[in-house]
Amino acid sequence: MSLKKKISQVLKTSAKKPDPFENRLILSGLLKSLDSEKPDLTYISNKVNSLPLGESFLWDCLKFEKEQDQVKAAKLIVAIHSSNKNLLDNTTFFENLRRNIVNLSADSLLHILEAINNSVLIEKKSFHTNDHLLWCLVEVHELYESAMTRMVIKQIILNVLNSDLLSIEWLYEMGNLLYEKVDYEKAILYYSIYLIFNGRSSECFFNRGLCKYNLGFFDVAVADYQAALSLDQANPVIYNNLGDSYYRQSRFTEAIALYDKAISINSSYLKAYYNRGLAFACLQDYEKAVEDFTEVIRLNSEFAEAYHIRGLAYDYLNMADKAIMDYERALKLNPDFDEARNHLEIIKSKLNQVQQSDTLSFDPGRHEMISNHNLSDVIGYDSLKISLYETIILPIKRPDLADKYLLQKSKGILLYGPPGCGKTFVSLALQKETGAKFYYIDNTILNMYVGNTENMIRSVFDDAKKNSPSIIFIDEIDGLIVKRDNSFDTQNWERKIVNQFLIEMSKLETDKQSCVYVIGATNLPWQIDKSFLRAGRLNEKIYIPGPDVTTRTYLFKVYLEDLVNNEKIDYQRLALHTENFSTSIIKSICESIRASLMIKENKGEPVLLSTDMIWHKIESTHPDLSDWLKYYERYRNEQNPFTGSIGFKTNCA
């Protein structure tokens, strides 16, 4: 049997059973043909293309664990494409090479690079027709640190350019020209090739980072700006642009640190002040934002945009008069500034609304509540009770100890967990335990007239400070402290409410006399604005889970024990089969059973409570916590701010 027939037989067999062993047989057969005195490259190429995966078969072979098998595949790839006189125009070849760079061993890569180099020397193609090749070389250069590999890459590039090491500056100049033409992707290619030969060019790293930034690749731009900074540590522009990349990723604190550095180098750097002001505004630190925009205006009193943005900051600080003055100044400098005109009209309209509306009688007292139960009435949750005692009850009842150990008198706490598990009930119990004034806030505090909601929030906090020790409980806080985007939009009333809460929390943090505990409760912790979860605000988080098996046992016993006649109820069985049932749904099941027994008695039927009767009710009830727990776990896995922040074990009772 001829060699060609043997190879054909191997190919047919492998087509039926494609596995690593058969793939190795194919490689061996093809290589025998390749190693003959006069290899028929056309025949080999046709056989490869006849496979179900075509040439992809050879690229897949590069993933073999054994390096010798990878080298075999590389040799065949080289052989096939060496017979192709238009290798450098073969887009598919370079696309496959870029996809498989990470799978290549050093020897395999060198075989392929040598083939490319030979083709370059033979074809002498123009540089401008070989972008695919050059992108491959750039990526290989970044992935492989081998001196031999990088030397071969440089030689190929010089051959493609038909150039030498003394005449590569035009690459940098070409990158600049392409940048000016807004062809950022092509500019990145030229800068990258230039950096292969001159990796100490701060300007080139900076310009390439600028291209990536303009393409929206902010995280990738950071690496280039950092490289530029390592080569030029006294350049304020690099610090500023690196800060911009962090800003665009919503990493405002890091951005501010970089703007600070730029300003420390150049105290008159207007752009850094402007950008830092924006970052402060995004962190809701409007006072500092005003300071920065004021400095921008001092440096350039004709900067209409600076007046406009400072006006927005004043607006969020509820300083309407100053906001109006800045909007008007912006319009005077630029009569076509439509955005400033819109904001000016909005704030004037809101002021007129407030003046024309009936004045709301703010009575903080209507938010006061007195509890008729304490923590001993809370079924189960022993670990939670201990946590609340140590965090709230003890400091309020023993202020002398709190003072002795220099504890903060006011504190923010977030109670979060699935619905129907007693967050509000537990919080009300704190009022009776401590004797503190208790203020209850929910979404009924919202008022249709502009400014009234903020005034009511301020009024409640002021009254709580006057009557301390006190507790402000914000129920369903996710409906009031909602997430905000990073844009300035005075039509977003939610932003103003969040800002008012932040102002009041900041006042408490600096108030050394008042003892006010702010407790927020939510089923949706991921919906709360992150600024409200930082230190000095609701930074202490306590997770209230659904009832565990011990608590569920006790719940059924408490709710049903008075109905039991002679039959013994298996409360343990009921508890074991109500996993992911909330406290409220268990109570609802028990109330439904009571209603059924009432109806039976009214009909004159025997009234007898049994385990089976309760069991049938449970079977027809959906575990209401299942969906919430799946959703919550998803956010924990996505590194939400609550991961690892619970105040006690999840399965506590």
Protein architecture, described:
The protein is mainly alpha-helical and 653 residues long. It has 4 domains: 3-167; 216-356, Serine Threonine Protein Phosphatase 5, Tetratricopeptide repeat (Alpha Horseshoe), CATH 1.25.40.10; 366-531, Rossmann fold (3-Layer(aba) Sandwich), CATH 3.40.50.300; 549-624, Helicase, Ruva Protein, domain 3. It has helices at 3-16, 20-34, 41-50, 56-61, 67-82, 91-100, 106-123, 131-143, 147-161, 169-180, 184-197, 202-214, 218-231, 236-248, 252-265, 270-282, 286-299, 304-316, 320-333, 338-356, 382-397, 399-404, 423-434, 452-466, 493-510, 549-560, 571-576, 583-602, 611-619, 626-637, and strands spanning 411-416, 437-441, 470-474, 516-522, 540-543. A 5-stranded parallel sheet has the order 2-3-4-1-5, sandwiched between helices. α10 (169-180) runs antiparallel to α11 and α24 (452-466) packs parallel to α25.
